[in-house]
Design goal:
By secondary structure, this protein is an alpha/beta fold. It is built from six helices and 14 strands. A hairpin with a 2-residue loop joins strand 6 and strand 7. Helix 2 runs parallel beside helix 3 and helix 3 runs parallel beside helix 4. The radius of gyration is 20 Å and the shape is globular.
């Protein structure tokens, strides 16, 4: 019994040392992940999409941090930049600087974004918050869209992208979602960008669109050890936490781990990520 007690103390002590070391070592770590979607044998030049989200610019992820991340995105030479939102964390102080930093993103077709829940947290008046973030972003070349389909042409093919308003503050109703998805029916390739993705929403996309891009989870952000593995607490919200998933026979889901922090300014076993997606048509 004494030896077992000593072993427990040793293990707990090791974790007490390991955990803060890992948190510090991974601070600011943002992975650049590459995915290929579309036709496996496509011969045309692929459309290169950069997908990012959850910068949540604030004192912990400031303008310099954001610009450094965006420089890495630019180095990938994307044709199109898509965002799952959450450009700011909270309060109005970082709206303008977040927009100025985002203006440094460069691509042939531009930068387009949905709203995240944090776009509503600048003021008590949530609509004012979203309006001011969108106004600042628009003034600096970032187009934020709300339940709207945009069309892009690449190598003679039409790509339809639905920018869906779906987050803690606004959940677009199911009938409206279905009507928006129906607008993508004529696309050679169809994409949905949403801040949040839960099982009920995913069911409305399954085998109806080609690609769903989601955000919000931060990969769990803080994933504690339970037994011998890290448990992603975001699983309490959604099964789509981080990375690539198959949804039915047709639909691919990619969820970004994001860049910044939410609630607490640390990540544990949940490094950030930017997604570079090569779409072959």
């Amino acid at each position: 019994a004494r030896m077992r007690g000593l072993a427990v103390i040793v293990v707990l002590g090791a974790f007490a040392l390991y955990t803060p070391i890992r948190i510090l070592a991974e601070r600011g770590d943002v992975r650049m992940r590459h995915f290929t979607v579309g036709a496996p044998g496509g011969q045309a030049r692929p459309l290169r999409i950069a997908f990012l989200a959850d910068v949540q610019q604030d004192v912990h992820t400031d303008a310099d941090d954001a610009r450094a991340v965006y420089a890495r995105v630019n180095a990938e030479q994307p044709d199109l930049v898509l965002s799952g939102g959450d450009w700011i964390n909270s309060g109005p102080d970082y709206i303008e600087s977040a927009a100025v930093a985002a203006s440094t993103l460069t691509s042939r077709l531009g930068t387009f974004s949905v709203r995240g829940d944090h776009e509503h947290f600048a003021y008590v008046d949530r609509q004012r918050s979203a309006d001011e973030v969108e106004k600042a972003m628009r003034a600096h070349g970032v187009t934020m869209l709300n339940n709207e389909v945009r069309w892009f042409t690449h190598e003679g093919k039409r790509i339809g992208v639905l920018f869906l308003n779906y987050n803690y503050i606004v959940r677009t109703d199911p009938d409206r979602v279905e009507a928006l998805v129906a607008q993508l029916a004529g696309a050679d390739y169809s994409i949905v960008v949403t801040h949040q993705l839960d099982a009920r929403l995913a069911a409305r996309f399954e085998d109806k669109v080609d690609l769903v891009l989601g955000a919000h989870t931060h990969g769990g952000q803080v994933n504690p050890v339970v037994g011998l593995t890290h448990v992603k607490l975001a699983r309490l919200e959604t099964q789509f936490i981080d990375g690539r998933y198959a949804l039915g026979k047709r639909t691919t889901v990619i969820v970004t781990s994001g860049i910044g922090y939410s609630v607490v300014p640390i990540r544990y076993a949940a490094p950030g990520s930017i997604e570079i997606i090569e779409l072959r048509l």
